[in-house]
Amino acid sequence: MIHLFREVESTNDLALAAAREGSNHGDCWVADAQTKGRGRRELGGERRTWFSPSGHSIYMSVLLRPKIETARAAGLTLAAGIGVCEAIKHNADIDIWLKWPNDIFVGTRKLGGILTEAVTGASGELEAVVAGVGLNINVPADMVPEDLTEIMTSMRIELDQPQDRMEVIFPLRESIVAWCDAYAHKGWDALKPGLERYDKSEGLAVEVNDHGKRADGIARGIDSEGRLQVELSDGTIKSLSTGEVQIVPRCS
Fold it and tell me: Which of 105, 164, 188, 227 maximizes the CB count within 10 A of its CB?
């Protein structure tokens, strides 16, 4: 079931509340606007705010009830990201890719992001996961905040024409559910084809912030356990399961 709203504080909050009330696997909450949309948690504990212009983007959250142990839940973020890329790429010939662990890029600019949040039981067992997705669909270039012009894009900007957001929502939900189900049933092997298509991190210069410890390096792809491999300046390989990674622009 897909629930549509004009404006909400956060679709993830709606989905998390519904998960605790027994809503079904695959149910989805979509809003035309969010007043308190949020991104990943900063290292200091606060969550990033999300630029959410009314009527131009997709803000949606999909409820998942995978039969997996809590320790494997982190892999659902990559699975959802592959699902987003697959759904968009199916209908638009754009250079879409998944930046570890939860950003959707076109070329060098961000198209959207994913925020997964878990619901656990009293003894710590995984009851549900909410995959929240924010995608810039019809944001025109002149609406992009000045401080985001170099790092943000939209489907309208990339394709030079507006898109029907409702035509994007349905395949988006189906693709997210399908990839997350595949991961739940088959593990990392199920994600390999998607990562081969949409992980383009190999060779990118990056800055790593691993719990306050910063280092420069070269991304060497995502391993079989979903960790980003970064070759540091001294030649050692650092495997990241958490932390922040920023792409470092190359000098022309």
Answer: 105
> Under CATH, which architecture does the 205-247 domain have?
Roll (2.30)
- With 90 as the cut, is the pLDDT of residue 150 above it? no
Going from N- to C-terminal start, the domains of the chain cover 2-198, 205-247
pTM, rounded to two decimals: 0.89
How confident is the model over 177-235, as pLDDT tens digits? 999 999 999 999 999 999 999 999 899 999 988 777 888 999 999 988 888 999 998 89
Q: How far apart are CA 118 and CA 67, in angstroms?
A: 13
- Helix runs in 69-210, H state only: 75-91, 155-159, 165-186, 192-198
**Number of residues in the chain:** 252
CA angle 172, 177, 180 (to 5 degrees): 125
Which residue, among 152, 126, 125, 130, has the nearest Cα to 141 in the 3D structure? 152
- Phi/psi for 211 (5° steps) reads 55, 45
- Mean pLDDT for 39-68 is 70
